[in-house]
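Inputs:
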Amino acid sequence: MWQKLKDGIEIRIGLTDLIENRLRQYRVPSDTNIFYTLGIVTMAAYVVQAITGYFLLMYYVPHSEHAFRSVQDIMTIIPFGWFVRMVHMVAANLMVALLFIHFISIFFMGSYKKPREITWLAGGLLLLVTLAFCLSGYLLPWSQRSYWATTIVSNLPTAFPVIGDALANLLRGGDSVTGVTLTRFFSLHVGFLPPVFLSIVGLHIFLVWRIGLSVPPLSQSAEEESEWTEFRHATYSRSYPFYPNFLLKEVSMIMLFLAVTFFIMSFMPTLFLPEAATTPADPLNTPADIKPEWYFLAPYQMLKMIPNKFLGISLQIIAIIVFLFWPFFDTRAERNIMKRPLIFGLFLVLLALWFLLTYWGRYSA
Amino acid sequence: MRYIYILSLVILVSAATTASAGYREIFEKEFLSKPWSTDIVAESSCIECHTSEVMDEKFRSIPQDWRVSWHAQNNVSCHDCHGGDSEDASMAMSHKRGFIGSPNYTDIPDMCGKCHIGILKNYVESGHGKALIEEGTGPNCITCHGSHNVQKVHIDIINAQLCSKCHPYERAKIMKQALFLTDKKIESIEDDLADLRKQGVYPDREEKSLFNTQAQFRTLFHTIDVAVVKDKTNFFTSELNGIEDEIKATFEELSFRKKFSTFLMLIFAGSWAIITLIIRSKD
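Outputs:
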């Protein structure tokens, strides 16, 4: 029976050939480290978000009168609703953290260099889409925290002269955060952003697959270092098959990601759920301490520090553009960052500054 | 070309680090003065006037007293007690809009009783209430509770210093003893509810039940009749026990959630360890 089923599948889709030629013969460098798996772990986090998001969608009511109550019902009345929501919330934060680490490691290993510039660009866009996911999803529980954090963030476009107010009003659907904003953010979160994300992720994975993984800069051979004048799949002096070796490594890291998710749910359940997140939104009662979520703290603190709002937002936009197109600016072939002290120093300063601003933003008045 | 972009980053870094001393004022001015916020954070015309320089000094502390009050924490504002139109300065003190201003001494219970209906009924039947109605001299609500800085009621409001201003403390002391256990139970439930909130739970059902029970309880003792309190204590104890049971169930649910998540954590951590060992053995 089993054999018959296997044969049936084999005849129709050629599974053995697929595994042999597409997975086993697909080679990856054997000296890859765990940082090479972060892309697939982030993708796994997205899948977790999609599944849990789908279940939340069954009970969530995107209306300012009912949103908070429906979320509380998910947490208390719906069987295992708390589990689905907690996984959704914790994995969302971990997904952002994973993306940050992924970018830091890619930068550090110079893996964005020719011919992988578009892969970096697609990754950068994915980070921005993920942050848009977070921003839009953040408002949905309609709690004091989500309401006021969104109020702050949605006011940022007003920094632009002439079109600023119109932009902010377009985002919010009015002068302030209201039920209209909730509906807009909800439709963005579940309708617009997922296909955009999946399209870009498709391009990103295609490019990684088509070009092949980069080799860590310290173990690059002369052949691997040779200039890319025409398209070729990456070749490696030492490699192993994608399946099962590298796939197992990826699966192990996904297991670790899930273990960390459940660790936070077990021992730090309120890490991303402070008291203001369990208080219904009250537009008439401004909380004393309004803070955006941790990943927006650094830009938020920076805006607070720069006296001119337009200058502040312009600098941030410049920073985003430089970040997105960085591989096209940094065209030198040298991938070993240790041999480029200026870039290395700048990288460390920016990283330290990010942490400092985040810390400052968290604890400043 | 790349140096231009490096320069941009340097500008970015230096601009961020050269913090202006007045950044917060500017931030607040620019971020909190937009149309979206003015509708929301605009203060009522009562507060605007009462905090202005033109106001008589003895009335200027009223908004500050109110801001730290239990009423303020529960969104009970000036016009809720004093009437008038808080959104329109020209009509803020209009009698046509129900403005009362400073009520007469004997009218104060009616003013408070607009919301605290059960307590008013209980109070007018009490010795305190009768003295006020019949002689115009008995204590009214603010005698014990204060006015603009009214705080959340605590059993310690019954104390020798306050009560003996008018009469010997002995009877009040017996009353306090009769209330003590029920009050302690309410306090303990309040602590549990605060704890639940800290653990990410929104216990609104329990909070509403407690609020109702507490409100009923308070309608009991303004008559200062110890026998009535003793008679009803069992009823309130059973009501409060019901709330405690619900809270206990929520704590048990939280404990289950923790165990369930830990179980899954161990499963996935174990899977990670096993797969890592397999990878090592293959290498």
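Remarks. Residues 226-282 of chain B form the longest helix (57 residues). Confidence is low (pLDDT under 50) at residues 16-24, 30-42 of chain B.
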